[in-house]
Amino acid sequence: MNTLPLFPDSPETRATTPAVPALLAQLWQWADAGWLRRLDAAFAQWLAERDATGGAVPLLAAALLAHMEGKGHSCLLLQDLHSRLPQWLDWPADPAAQQALTQLQTWLPRDAAGWQAALAASPLVELRSALSVDQTPPAATAATDAQKDCPPLVLQPRGGTLRLYLRRYHQYEQRVAQALLARARQQSTFPAPDIAEWLARLFPATASQPDAAINWQKAACALALHSRLGIITGGPGTGKTYTAARLITAALALADDPAQLRIRLAAPTGKAAARLTESLQQALQSLPPGVQEQPALLQALQQLPAARTLHSLLGSRPDTRQLRHHAGNPLELDWLIVDEASMVHLEMMAALLDALPPHAHLVLLGDKDQLASVEAGSVLGDLCGQAELGHYGATTAQFLQQASGHPPPAAMCQPAGAAALALAQSTVMLRESRRFGGAIGQLAQAVQHMDGAAMARILAGLQQNHGAAHGVFWKEPAGLAEAARLAWQGHGPAPGYQPLAEALLAAPRWPAGNARGQTPVQAQAQPPQAPPAWLDEHAAWVRRVLAALERFRILCATREGEWGVAGMNALVMQALRQHGLPVRMQGWFAGRVVMVTRNDAALGVFNGDIGIALPAPQERQSLRVYFTGGGHAGPDANTGSHAQPRSITVSRLQHAETAYAMTVHKSQGSEFEHVLLVLPGRISPVLSRELLYTGLTRARAAFSYLAPAAGIWEHAMRQRTFRASGLADWLQNTADAGH
Ligand SMILES: Nc1ncnc2c1ncn2[C@@H]1O[C@H](COP(=O)(O)OP(=O)(O)OP(=O)(O)O)[C@@H](O)[C@H]1O
Fold first, then answer.
1. Which of 467, 505, 539, 644 is deepest in the core (most CB within 10 A)?
2. CATH second-level architecture of 186-205+213-435?
3. Which atom number of ligand 1 is nearest to the Cα of residue 279?
4. CATH fold of the domain at 20-133+150-166
5. Topology classification of domain 439-507+531-629+645-718
6. Nearest Cα to 219, choosing from 260, 253, 250?
7. Which residues are annotated as a binding site?
8. What is the pLDDT of residue 662?
């Protein structure tokens, strides 16, 4: 029911809001100042040209909505907008920006009733009832996209909150919620005793894991086999891939014909897909003996295809948002395992669910505590908001007892007779990390629990060792000289970029006949016909360079500034030049590390792919970008060699940026032996607990931290990332009594 009363507009608001032309002029001025995006002002202008009869407030709300969508929010929480505007917009501290912000604030209604009054009369806004749900089938929704005749903005009261959406995001949220709930409720046909039998084989009791209490990995498999949806969340090393390997094995074992079961693996980035393939292969090596005795099962496991990026799985095509697979042309698969699900944004999740055939099982693996996706939405976080508490219903508890040998602890079950949320019945949180100990693990825990006392203890221990112990170096305030030292030398055995520079300079000499005898990195020239032995030598060198590149990365909270990606890249490039590499501040050079910034399905490169420019083995004077991870095993199109990693010539890679340093956001799905996290000296909303946690957990063996001001870490640790979204509400307001 719509719980928000419809009051007349507040006179206070009307009195201060400018006329439409004045508002638009002001929005463009703010865009020129860099406080809003030009896109935000242009959107308001476009709406005004469509219909300005609703006055300035709907246009102002639209510009702010577009701006917030650019920051990852899928909607605008209207009743909080007035009070939280300074925090959400984060305009610069200078007096002009702050004065503008104050002015903007006076134009906003102060509460939900004021907003509803100001927006309800506008033909640009559709007011939805709290209970209405879109019934448009996904294929039709995708086809009409903007739905030209519908108002572009949607005002949605629900759960006591008033949200304003771009129509597209309103539809995505509803489609995602409906599709996930339908899958969670749809039970599979596997009989519980058969599930129990296979899970007992795959998770035999051991000394470290006696069969005395519930085994959450086993329970996760049981629930994913029980319905068409499994959500498995947990921190690094908690065994998500280990569990997925056993789940896949059980699914194949329970299938009538394992050879016919189409299991597909996917991840949001090429890097994450490569890691999934690799760690799944490792996990499959450690399956218990019972499996080895089943030749058909073994053969099916050996034939599992490599993981792909979600973009390539869904058939992303150049120059269009439309994907090859959708509800009208569904994916041809029976099971889909998606790793690093925290990186999947709302639009991608909606597209994925549209394209999934109804009978297919979907399994999402990911760490709910990591940063949300770069693009709008916080899907996994919204799905797993209650995962820690379980909330299992009586039917689920009974099924877990039957299929895995133990019910969940009483504290994680719903009281008798209480309704159980459908999604919770398909969700398991894994808690025990088997990889993460030492100071990095302790730091990650202290951050996650906002535990100031634990943090103080860890720092005191580090100080006794001049800032470094057990693979952790932590210093604030610190100077840029310190950053340059760590970026080059690392600390202790933990590497900086020096090993990469050494690998680059240790390039094989050109074959005999090249009079200068220079390495390819120095000369970028070679004979036109390279002999096969030289090609192999070149390929081995490329692999050594890529391995060195994977050892270290600088992660930043921001892109700009000395302590952002730009500053850190400059610092590293200066060091590389000093050590004899042909670095150029603009354009391509051998040794330039880049990150792809836009998907290009035709080229087979995707946003977030990391590569390094190196001289090509055959083409005189030419550079190719060789990519880490996600490479294909087939022969290189250019060289014919079987050992070449995936590469493309630099002139074809239009959308890439230098990436010795990258944002923490973009580092999700990757791990490095040593991570140097640098934060800026100014407090801002991007500094958050999730940012620290994600940065920390990218480090396999060593972690360094620097910031130019004291108190930055502490501030970040106490601040949670905020993403406005209505997805949790759509999911939670739908209870399934008796589940
Ligand atoms: N029940 C178990 N018994 C023995 N070893 C386990 C078990 N669960 C996980 N491991 C081991 O712990 C390590 C981490 O497991 P895994 O890679 O599956 O974790 P993950 O959650 O997928 O990590 P990440 O988030 O970093 O990908 C692996 O070496 C795995 O073999």
1. 644
2. 3-Layer(aba) Sandwich (3.40)
3. 17
4. Arc Repressor Mutant, subunit A (1.10.10)
5. Rossmann fold (3.40.50)
6. 250
7. 234-241
8. 97
